[in-house]
Design brief:
It contains 7 helices and 17 strands. By secondary structure, the chain is of the alpha+beta class. The protein folds into 2 domains: 207 residues, ApbE-like domains (T-fold, Roll), CATH 3.10.520; 80 residues, T-fold. The strands form 4 sheets. It has an 8-stranded antiparallel β-sheet with strand order 2-3-7-8-11-14-15-16, covered by helices on one side. Strands 1-9-10-17 form a 4-stranded antiparallel β-sheet, with no helix packed on it. A 3-stranded antiparallel β-sheet has the order 4-6-5, with helices on one face. Helix 1 packs antiparallel against helix 6. The protein is globular.
């Protein structure tokens, strides 16, 4: 996903079902220790937010939240509060309280399958941030009705990137690039040549294809598409990105690249953009901020760029798109 100077320091770790890679500039003091500290933050995010770990805060909420308030880590509470804010800002196109739908369609760690419409209707009643009650004073989370489930897909990797970048900044690192698999990347400062980090965006499903090179500096980027996680039924292809309002997968061809100062926000915005399409995304991004989305068709050709106010401005970012 990235294009880096020839001489860099790379560190890799597997987490959240993919390979994470941290790039530091040559000569960075204590690079191995810094990498370990960054990866520990990624592991922490996974331990708190994974639906696949029974001991995670998210799993405990899903298991116990219908019976009463569940005490969670301050970091988990912070993540949930931010995720629900992003849900509101995207008009519900992104919503981590859609776990009932994700499980129903078979996308929670299994192969997808098409459910009956009456099953979708029942799952929709258990979907939406209004079904999750946060109590800041007590640091607890409660589910408002049986069947409600949280699933932080489209947010968790970005949150892990944000925590890792915070750790690096706190340690005095001024230049770093970290990516979570091929879907999200966060940049700190500039590369060893003094230029913004060069990030090459790969076309989903095509190992050699590349649709764009974007320049990132103190900025984050996430990609969302349905090419790599989908199934076919009755001649139709259904992807893993679900529309929380309808309960059905997005069938839009192509993909969306979101750029925000926060990696968690870019993760969420990329998902929302795929649900909303260019026109809907343009509506939610009006407001003067710097977050933006670039839409590509199924062959990786840029078709539209929209930008606006999901986040306050102030971060530095530059990009160019090459076909």
């Amino acid at each position: 996903m990235t294009e880096e100077p020839a001489s860099v320091l790379r560190f890799r770790r597997r987490a959240m079902g993919c390979i994470w890679e941290l790039t530091l500039c040559p000569g960075q003091p204590d690079a191995p220790a810094l990498a370990e500290a960054a990866f520990e933050q990624v592991s922490l995010a996974e331990r708190l937010l994974s639906v696949f770990l029974p001991s995670s805060d998210i799993s405990r909420i899903n298991r116990e939240g219908q019976s009463g308030p569940v005490k969670v880590s301050p970091l988990t509470f912070r993540a949930l509060a931010h995720a629900f804010q992003l849900s509101e800002l995207t008009g519900g196109a992104f919503d981590i309280a859609c776990g009932a739908l994700v499980r129903l369609w078979g996308f929670e760690g299994g192969e997808g399958h098409k459910p009956a419409q009456d099953e979708i209707t029942r799952a929709l009643k258990c979907t939406g941030r209004h079904n999750v009650l946060l109590d800041e004073a007590s640091g607890t989370v409660r589910l408002a009705r049986p069947g409600v489930r949280l699933n932080p897909g489209g947010y968790g990797k970005g949150f892990g990137l944000d925590l890792a970048m915070e750790a690096l900044r706190a340690a005095g690192v001024q230049s770093a690039l970290m990516h979570a698999g091929t879907s999200s990347v966060a940049a700190l400062g500039v590369d060893s040549t003094g230029r913004p980090w060069q990030v090459g965006i790969r076309i989903p499903g095509q190992n050699e294809g590349r649709a764009a090179v974007l320049e990132l500096q103190d900025w984050s980027l996430s990609v969302s598409g349905i090419s790599e996680q989908s199934f076919s039924d009755g001649g139709r292809r259904f992807g893993h990105v679900l529309a929380p309002r309808t309960g059905w997968p997005v069938e839009r061809e192509g993909w969306a690249v979101a750029l925000c100062e926060s990696a968690a926000a870019s993760d969420a915005l990329a998902t929302a953009a795929l649900v909303l399409g260019p026109e809907g995304t343009e509506r939610i991004l009006r407001g003067g901020g710097e977050a933006r989305v670039i839409f590509y068709d199924e062959k990786g050709r840029p078709i539209r760029e929209v930008g606006g106010g999901l986040e306050p401005g102030g971060a530095r970012t530059e990009s160019h798109v090459s076909e």
